[in-house]
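Practice set, problem 2.
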Amino acid sequence: MALAQTEEIARRLTAAEPGIEVEIVKFETTGDRDQTSKLLAHGGKGGAFVAEIRKAVIAGELHAAMHSLKDMPGNEDTPGLVIGAALSRDPPTDALVLRAGISIDDIRRSRGKGFKIGTNAVRRAAYARRLFPQVEIIHYRGAADTRVRKLDHLEMQRLPDGGEVGPADALIMARSGLERVGLGGRIAYEFSLREMLPAVGQGIVAVECATRDWETRRILSRIDDPQAHASADAEREVLWILNGHCNSPIAGFSTIEGSQMSLTSSVLDEAGGLFIEAARSGPADRPRELGRAVGLDLLAKGAAEIIERSRPK
């Protein structure tokens, strides 16, 4: 999936800047090499998928790096790097993929009892427990196509301690990721934004480069989508205010209509029992201010306590 995203960036750059030569450098990160451990063991998605690539950009080994925005830590600063471009947002919603013989109605009627749903995302697990209170959530990692293959073949999922869990009856995955690898037809149900608010930045591909590399920044600006970039700024500001971490079920999604931006964000505990939400609207040209206001609203409602309880002991 990452390669498909990178190839799309290369196509856009060559179209926007005729004559430019773009070389795609494949980069295997810790998260790619270790498909078993929970991401928390590597410092979350940031440590597993982002940190090593960022070091290569800072060292001058790469001019720019592609990230799924939802994988980029929002509660820490990375001096020397800047998001040079945000691509137009893909559908941000989450979707349910089912094995043969199961329907969404089966899971709903049973409130999830007797069903195993696979995901590695704490946010998705928390929302799933709210929707299906008796469901069993199982740790499930791997590339999108690999996860679906395991689901179809009733394969067990290896656990960090050497054990196994499964097989899964269903998976919760990003709609855009499934479509990008040609598996959009496997979507059995698409969660509404009210049922499952997306992760901050979900559906946005970000291209990061060195802050002082002005030529690369100029070129990347040719493929930047201003609305997606503004949404990225607003949603990531919420993460900054909340000081969330990789084990914090935090969600956020913004939309822009004309000169106005609307932003909704939520914080849940991992069990899905505690849930708070905040929403505001404001000028679209001041996204960080809007994100800051929503983040402060969540803190006033008790978000800090929920996040603190979810921190690894």
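Problem 2, part (b): a different protein.
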Amino acid sequence: MPDPAGLEQVYRARDARWRKWLSPPAPFVMNPHEPKNFPLGRWNLYIGGAGRSVDGYINLDLFPMAGVDVVADAETLPFPANLFQRVECDAVLEHVCDPHRVMREIERVLAPGGYAHLVTPFCHPFHEYPRDYRRFTIDGLKRLAGGMEVVAEGWRTGPTATLLVFVIEYFKLLLPWRMWRGAAHMVVGWLLFPFRYLDVWLLRRPRAGRLGNHCYIWLRKRQ
């Protein structure tokens, strides 16, 4: 397993000013129809937000690094039951050893009537932060819901995002040195990113999920 210092270097490299200037736009557009308006409360939890600012949330991750408020394993959350109005779990469940246990912990710490927002990759390259175990469909996420009610579901990023991220990773795979791979990421990313806007149209089509990049689900804890 990568050590905390190694992971922190990854996040710091992403935040470097020169990298921000040179890096291409992300190879995806967010689905504009994904719900965002479920209420926040006095206490809200963000699981896995290392290296980012998550205003309005307690930011929990495995290692002490930039942006992290609480260091803990999501399989054993260090909070009392029925505390949080909203729990965000964005691109985390593919990295945990036991997603069912994580989901029971999320359900436990949610207040009655509170909301859990899950986002996971489906068609997406392998990525270790610190390990990468699995991929999910929407139906797979529903199997984790337990006693919570599904209130919204869909695809956050679509088929074009899938195509672009795999093409970028393919070109990087051909190159032997890290510096060359970084240059390839920037060059190919800049060349391809305009195609991402095709997903604005494709995400409206019912078969988009056959090659969907990331899916989402909103769950509500029953009163």
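Answer key, part (b): The CA atoms of residues 42 and 85 lie 7 Å apart. The beta strands are 44-47, 58-61, 70-71, 84-90, 110-121, 149-157, 214-220.
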